[in-house]
Amino acid sequence: MKTLMTGDEAIARGAYEAGVAFASAYPGTPSTEILQNVSTYKEIVSEWAPNEKVALEAAAGASIGGARALACMKHVGVNVAADPLFTFSYTGVRGGMVLVSADEPGMHSSQNEQDNRWYAVSAKLPMFEPSDSQECIDMLKTAYEVSEKFDTPVLFRITTRIAHSKSIVNLSDRANVPIKEYVKEVQKYVAVPALASKRRRVVETRMDSLKEYADASPLNRIEKGGKTGVIASGMCYNFAKEVFGEDATYLKLGFTNPLPDKILHDFYKLVDKVYVIEENDPYIQQWVERLGYKCIGKPVIPPYGEMTADVLRQAIHNKALDSVKYDESLVVPRPPVLCAGCPHRGFFYELAKKKDTIIAGDIGCYTLGFAEPFNGMDYVVCMSAAFSSGHGTQQALAAAGKSTRVVGVMGDSTYFHMGINGLIEVLYNNSKTICVVLDNRTTGMTGHQEHPGTGHNIRREPAHEIDIATTAKALGAKNVVVIDPNNLKQVREALNDAYAKDEPSVIITRWPCVLKPMNKNDYDEFGKDLFQNKYRVNEEACVCCKACIKAGCPAVSIDAAKKKATIEESSCVGCSVCAQICPKSAIVKSEVGK
Predict the structure, then answer these.
(1) What is the CA radius of gyration of the chain?
(2) Regarding beta strands 97-103 and 379-380, do their DSSP bridges make them parallel or antiparallel, or are they unpaired?
(3) What is the Cα–Cα distance from 227 to 234, expressed in whole angstroms?
(4) How confident is the model at residue 194 (pLDDT cuts 50, 70, 90)?
């Protein structure tokens, strides 16, 4: 059967067809939809993990237990999972194990643009790079065969355009792959120095065998054309074909670590000039040059961003396709903002009033609090770093004899990711850092996935709910308060109380994101009329002081003609923050929606 699938959907399908029995991931764009789609196949045990390291460790354990296993994460997630990854390369597998790394050239939803092909080199792993959805299915099935044949985990690298672009795929039945019987193999799987040093030699022998496989693999192929040669892998192959067309000769690489020397020699016999098209680092280019061949790559091909057809035309031919000309100065900027009714708004509004404060941020939709009108973050390091980096800043200020306070801000999913470790750092060292968890009851930024604090698993079935306040108290936090972030008085009092103490404080703001799938527990806790209220402006009372605009809510604006504030009824979800801000009580509850 044929159908349309994104790359993420196709990888999920490939896992199903390959006979995968266990899959684990932490959500992160552009990889999130892989596990979401895997979870629709009842034959595969699918689980959200609290972080990428745990996801990979769980998948490694499933592999050692004899099952084919899958772990998925975005590129920066592999940094978190690198510890088990490098060691699992030494021990090898029992059931096949594939790690999907979804890289993001262009940084559409990421804090950096790292090139994870180097992880395959450093960890000495075979690597596959599909260029469309059909290859996502076919290569993933081949990856499990390679994993088991060569006793190794496999790195399966995609990029944003592969993950989210759709193409036609052919569906097949699920392979009957029984879970292998567990056999105790201490010499192989116990990674103590005396045993791991022996496995180190095995890894080198394995890489030699994989080199032979790469040279013979049909995943690396020559497509004969003209005397201009193009070497590319993944989505760059498709971009290159748009620019060079059928007149070029292509070396299309699908198995990219180790790279295939023999086919490269054959390729260079057919062409006069060669372009290496790749995103980010000159990974393929360095291989070509190391083998003694000349090529056109970096810096002619830009070292950052996506190598779309337009980018390549400009870089190679110094021209782009004709486009509509317009006055760019007339385009009104539309920066991303917190959604109307976002539960983070009330907290950032009150925090903005605090002087002599440094705010350590984190990765999530609440990171938008850094912008106007809140200016609510001074720096963001990486996922789960708000409390630990904030603690470091607080200690540096103390050493300098300054009274400035540091507030660390992170979300609920981020807290479970590894933020809890940062809180341990704060408590253990008796830091004055104020630790804030913005609990909107979901993993908001990546599409509202469940996590250990929501009470539901990936299939939205009831699961054990880990309470954030309880964990903080169990760690020894004495000053823990849970507040409604839409109640500005509660937010203000909680902050004032924390600022008044010379010891750690934990503030948990608890209110659901309006976009998350609601369940009975949400309505039981937050009220049956959750998000049903609306607010409007009483124009007779409004003096257009614009205080309400300071809430930064996209539902609130100023009618220039009337010189009155106005609220877009369809966007309002009744959080009431603007009503609490208004000094003239001109914003009132509407009867609409009741």
Answers:
(1) 27
(2) unpaired
(3) 22
(4) very high
| Whether 318 contacts 243, CB under 8 Å | no
414 three-class SS: helix
Give the type of residue at 90. Answer: Y
For residue 103, the surrounding DSSP H or E stretch is strand 97-103
d(CA 216, CA 443): 44
Q: How many helices (H) and strands (E) does the chain have?
A: 21, 23
CB 47 within 8 Å of CB 172: no
Give the C-alpha separation, 76 to 52, whole Å: 9
Q: Which two tokens stand for residue 384?
A: 């789960």
Segment holding 202, helix H or strand E? helix 193-216
What is the pLDDT averaged over residues 305-315? 94
Q: Which of 546, 545, 543 is nearest to 557 (CA)?
A: 546
Q: Classify residue 218 as exposed, middle or buried by CB count within 10 Å of its CB (0-12, 13-18, 19+).
A: exposed
Q: What is the C-alpha separation between 315 and 278, in angstroms, rounded?
A: 13
CA distance 276 to 251: 10
Looking only at the bridges linking them, the beta strands covering 255-257 and 127-128 are antiparallel
* 376-388 residue pLDDT tens: 999 999 999 999 9
pLDDT tens string 358-371:
999 999 999 999 99
Rounded Cα gap, residues 398 and 432, in angstroms:
9
Q: Are strands 22-25 and 45-48 parallel, antiparallel or unpaired?
A: parallel
Gap between the terminal Cα atoms of the chain:
48
Chain mean position to CA 199: 33
User: Which residue is associated with the tokens 């609440």?
Assistant: 366
Give the integer Cα–Cα distance in Å for 12 and 28: 15
Token pair 């990219």 is found at 256
- For β-strands 221-223 and 255-257, DSSP reports them as unpaired
The residue among 499 and 328 whose pLDDT is bigger is 499
Dist CA 481 CA 132 (whole Å): 49
pLDDT of residue 343: 95
Res 592 pLDDT > 70: no
**pTM for the full predicted model:** 0.94
Q: What's the sign of the alpha-carbon dihedral 434, 438, 441, 447?
A: negative
CB 302 within 8 A of CB 135: no
Residue type, 521: N
